[in-house]
Structure formats: structure tokens, C-alpha cells
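step 4 of 6: structure.
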Amino acid sequence: MALGHVLTANRLSDGIVVFLTATSAWSEKIDEAVLAREPLAAGALEKRGAEFEDTNLVTGAYLIEAERQGDAIVPTHVRERIRACGPTIAYLGAQTPPCQADAPAVAA
Amino acid sequence: MYRYDEFDQAFVDQRVEQFRSQTSRRLSGELTEEEFKPLRLMNGLYLQLHGYMLRVAIPYGTLSAVQMRALAEISEKYDKGYGHFTTRQNIQFNWPKLEDTPDLLADLAKVEMHAIQTSGNCIRNVTADHWAGVAADELADPRPVAELIRQWSSLHPEFSFLPRKFKVAVTGAPADRAAVKLHDIGLRLHLNEAGERGWEVIVGGGQGRTPMVGVTVRDFLPEEELLGYLEAIMRVYNLFGRRDNKYKARIKILIHETGAEEFSRLVEEEYARAPRPSVEIERKELDRISAYFAPPAYESLSAVEPELERRKLEDPEFARWVRTNVGAHRVAGYGIVNISLKPIGGIPGDATAEQMRTIADLAERFSHAEIRVSHHQNLVLPDVKLADLYDLWTVLAVNGMGEANIGLLGDIISCPGLDYCALATARSIPIAQSISRQFSDPQRLEEIGPLRVNISGCINACGHHHVGHIGILGLEKKGKEFYQVTLGGHSGTDASIGGVLGKGFSEDEIAGAVETIVDTYLDIREDGESFLDCVRRAGTPPFKEALYAPA
């Protein structure tokens, strides 16, 4: 079971959901995030998040539980899956297909 | 409709520049998020699930074609080309950038709009009957009073830090289309035998996690006393409303805990004590405001329009749309056109920029350039000549807005739910879509008759599920969404809160559960009995039996 934690936040300037990568950058793609498997590593991510909040690049940083599935990183909770992936509906004016956040993240 | 005077415009313009400065200080780091958050909320800017969301005020749901066109343009310039009309008669944009918001607000200000009173613990944007001024059953247009309350309450220094948000709704008609019994204060107009105007004052209604139907504290408050009396209510609430617990801070809880009689006594005591605003000035001010709402120059027309009757005979789809979507106008030869923003399988309340422009064009061509937003998340063209209905309908139909389902099962109210909202516990839009697809046959919808399905994605009840004839509440357990069903809610004059039926349903089961409920109704209804009347007569047992009894 490759469960771990990913650090997420909203970018201050435009509010878009972002994830902290291994190179301490913020990516809009959760699959590019660093997945902390150890509690210590997760703690370090949180600390990095607070630093980025202090420099006003992001706001509201917090850890979410997620799992690596092949090349993808999939959050455990439906809320975080939708947050990572976008609305699950084909909204008007959308250029992208709806997100498939319905699939259970963690195999029972 | 109301137009800004120089003071209004200066006030809104200054507010934009103030927010521009606050935003730039936030972006540079001078302000922390903690410091900035209340400031952005005072300007309608939330941080939601996927990003910022801006809620724009549409006072009492009335806007002009020019304003609608500006909203369309804003949705393209700063957002993704669409907007969401809400159950509070406002519009929300889902994707604005913080750095763009001051410019967005400046563009709004150019058409006399803003996002004040759409968030925070203040008196919120006043809502009203979306048929105000045109309904056949109306005593008088309630919007001058709504506008007076808006001006009085906007940034009112004494009421800017209330225990919790505060919502006021007004109606000038006996048939309640504004859900006045489900607001912190609801106002209903009455006329006495001398023809004088007085307002029934209903206090302490609301939905959310503790739904309550409001209680009448005054049957007939003379109109000139209105603001003074509202002030007394606000003072009692401001003083005694709970601040220790956010979930017990609304005025309904205060009334529930102190008792309606004692609350009423406190208000009367405060009212007797307080210095009242000068009655004369208020009358003058109300007259000044009323002039803005003077009815347009109606033509003298026959109540029966032969051209309309011919078209109805020729085109049954059009005839159905006229039956379901056109309301009775107080002037002969005119109709109130209700435009459904609930296409089959669509997102309730969403409209593209292109659709907004089409509505603006249609309003200019057919309805004195005025548009309304209903709390059912639909739009209204209030003043359409019966002779113009067919032309209007054909334009609506080709633009995806010709659905004949107003007040029927397809006209589902739904909050944004977990697809957008940071507070939601479950998705609500996909549920609305699956029910809407399940009941896509317009003929069947008409046979079922008036039936309101309301869906909320959390207990805060933005989707009005407590007052849905069938209410659906989305919840979550161990990371899985499920849906609780209530029956018998209603937001009209005889308002009631729905009762929970039983165990919840999964996303895949919910449309089937609604189907079972509807089938049960069709099975047991008496001649001409509406769904609501049937539930009120038969109670929940037949429905529970159908839903939960082992097969």
C-alpha cells in the first residue's frame, strides 16, 4: 500500500489549487507532487508550506492523504479528488472534459 | 428600475479603489491572509474548492439588459465564459483571479453593480418576489421598500458585525413566491380597509442546519414605521443573539431560545424606547425611490390574443411552454415569461455568456429591457406582450433555454455542491442531472404536476432542500457520498419543513428513489390532488413503504 501525504494549497494570485513538488515548486498537477510516505517527511512538507505562505506565494496549505497508483497520485477522500481534478460535471464553457473523481481511490 | 445617483456611484467607485489597495497590499505581503480574508469577504470574494469565487449582488433579483450584457462580458474577460445564478437571486463567478478582481469590480461599478452584502455577518442583499410589479395577484410592487431597506442596511455601521448573517425578503402579493417565512425577516404587504399599506413582519425563519418557519410579530405595521421597527429587531438581535457558537447565532435560535412572545416583547420595548427616524423624510424618500419603479407604458391590449391562440393550436410544444412557463400578468395582453435555466441534464442556474447576451437582447426587444432572477435559479422577462411570445420562445428554444418545466419536477433547485463548494459534503449537481434525465419527458412532467425537487450538498441548505416537496441532502460517511430524502417541505404561504423519510441512498440509487416516490404519488393521489397536498394528506407511510419495504 503506497499511502502517504501530499501538500496542497491555493495559489494566492489566482486561487488555483496547487501541489508541492519534489523540487519545491508548486504544480497544478497532483501527479507531479511529492508523496511523503513517512510522518517525518510529511512534517517537513508542512513546514515548507508555511514558508511559502509567509512569502505569499500560496495560501491555506494543508496535507492530504493520497496514494500512488502507477504514474498517478490519487487522494483518499472524494473531496480532495474533486479538488485535485476539477468539477466532475461538464460545465458550460468548459474546454476540458469533466473530471473522473468518482472512482474509489483506494482499493478495498 | 432603480438608478444610482451621484452618491451611490461615488460610494461604489470608492469601494472599488479601497479594495484595489487592499488587494495590492495582500499580493505584496503587507496584509496576511488572516487580515485580508474579512476584507475580501466584504467584497463578495470567497476562496472555494478550486479557487476564488465572486458573488455579485443583484438587489431583489432585478437587473437591466445592459447589466446582463456586462455580466456576460465579465464572465468572458475574467472567468470561463459562464456564470451561476443562485438561490439568493445573485450571480456567482467560479474562476476569477484575485489579481483581476479589482478590475472586475470596476467593470461592475460601471453598470451600477457591486459585490457588497453578499458575504459576512451583515444584512445581506435583500430578496423579493421575482414577479414583483407585474404579478396579477399583487397588491403593490414591493421593490421600492426592498430598495429602501437596501440603502438603509448597506454598510450600516451598527449592523456590520452582527452575530451572524441576516437575510430579508419582501413580497407584495398574497401568494408567497419569495419564501418570506424562511428568512431572518420576511415582509408581506397588506392593505387595510382604508386602502392603507401595512407590512406583516415575520421573524426567525430560515433553513440551514436548524430549519424553522418564521413567526409573525406584527400583522400590520404601518409602512412609515418600517425602518424604525426593523431597527428595533436588529438591535434586540445584535444585543442578545448568541456569539459563542456560530451554529446557534442566527436570529431563529434567539427566538427559539427566548420564546416568540418574549422576543416580541423585547422588540416592542426597544421600539418604544428608540428615537424613530422622521416619518416625513422616509415618506419623501420612499416616494423618490418609488418613482424609479414606475410601470412602463403598457399598450391597451385585448386579454385574448388570436395570433397566440393560433400558434398554440399549431405547435403543441409551444402551447406546453406557454402553459408551464408564462405567468399571469396584471395588465391584459401581457405575460410574465419565466425562462428555465434547467435544461434536461444541465446544471441548474448556469448560463453561458452567449445565453446571457441572448437574454439581454430579448429583454430589450420584448420586455422593456428588464430582467429578473428567481430564487429558483431561473430568469424572468416580466413584461412580454402575448403577441410576442412565439417569437420569443423560438429564440429561447434554439439557445437551450426553451425548456417547459417551470414549477415542475425538471425545475430542480441545486446548490453548487462538492463540485465547487468548500463547505459541501457531497455533490449535488450530478444528482440534479440524473433526476432531470430520468424525468425528461415533458408530457409526463405535466401529468405529475407541480413538484419541487430541491438538492443541497450539505446541511447549510443553500439548495433549499428543507422546503423541497422532495428534498435531497447530500452527506458523506467514510469518504463516500450519500443522499437523505425529505418529503413535504414547502416555501409558499403555507410554508413547511420537510420530514426525513429514512435511510439514505447512494448516487446511483437516488433518481430511482425519486421515481418510486413519484409512482407512489401517482398511485394514491386523489382527483386533482397535487404532490404536496397528497403528502400532507397521506403522510409519509405510503412512501416509506414503497421505498424501504423488502421486495
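step 5 of 6: annotate
 - Chain B touches chain A at residues 26-29, 33, 47, 49-52, 75, 80-82, 96-99, 347, 350-353, 418-420, 424, 427, 429-430, 433, 476, 479-481, 507 (CB under 8 Å).
 - Chain B has a mean pLDDT of 96.
step 6 of 6: archive
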